[in-house]
């Protein structure tokens, strides 16, 4: 593991997903899934999200489209929260999912709209 890239990834991951969420994920890791936590933190968050060529807001919008298309509801919910932290508006999230409907399929977009709406309600309630 490259410590500097990992530390940069940890910083970015916490800023996007929330420190409490990230710290809980790492603290609850065991021998089986700790290597995955380290891999994601170093490579996903440090090596890719740590690049300067795209701002976090655009990376979040790209992630919403891809994760929606992959039908990964848990990850989508987490990244909707992150997108909001990165300045993506509800209207922009809506537009991403409309784009998903056309290019990846209506069922994926319908589920994404449902997940986003529930996430917006949770955020408004402070959950």
Topology of this protein?
Layout: H1 3-17, H2 19-27, H3 34-48, H4 56-70, H5 73-85, H6 90-104, H7 106-124
Poorly predicted ranges (pLDDT <50, ≥5 residues)?
Answer: none
Q: What letter string, H or E per element, gives the SSE order?
A: HHHHHHH
Question: What gyration radius follows from the Cα positions, in whole Å?
Answer: 15 Å
User: What is the typical, i.e. mean, pLDDT?
Assistant: 96
Structural class: mainly alpha
Number of strands: 0
The first-to-last residue Cα distance is: 34 Å
State the main characteristics.
single chain; 127 residues; mainly alpha
Task: Provide a descriptive summary of the structure in words.
The chain is mainly alpha-helical. It is built from 7 helices and no strands. Helix 1 packs across helix 3 (34-48), helix 4 (56-70) runs antiparallel to helix 5 and helix 6 packs antiparallel against helix 7.
């Amino acid at each position: 593991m490259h410590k500097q890239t990992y530390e940069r990834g940890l910083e970015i991951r916490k800023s996007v997903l929330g420190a409490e969420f990230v710290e809980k994920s790492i603290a609850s890791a065991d021998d089986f899934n700790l290597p995955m936590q380290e891999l994601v933190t170093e490579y996903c968050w440090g090596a890719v999200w740590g690049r300067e060529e795209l701002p976090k807001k655009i990376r979040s919008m790209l992630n919403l489209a891809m994760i929606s298309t992959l039908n990964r509801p848990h990850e989508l919910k987490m990244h909707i929260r992150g997108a909001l932290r990165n300045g993506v508006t509800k209207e922009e999230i809506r537009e991403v999912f409309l784009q998903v409907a056309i290019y990846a399929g209506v069922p994926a977009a319908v589920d994404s709209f449902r997940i986003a709406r529930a996430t917006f309600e949770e955020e408004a309630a402070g959950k």
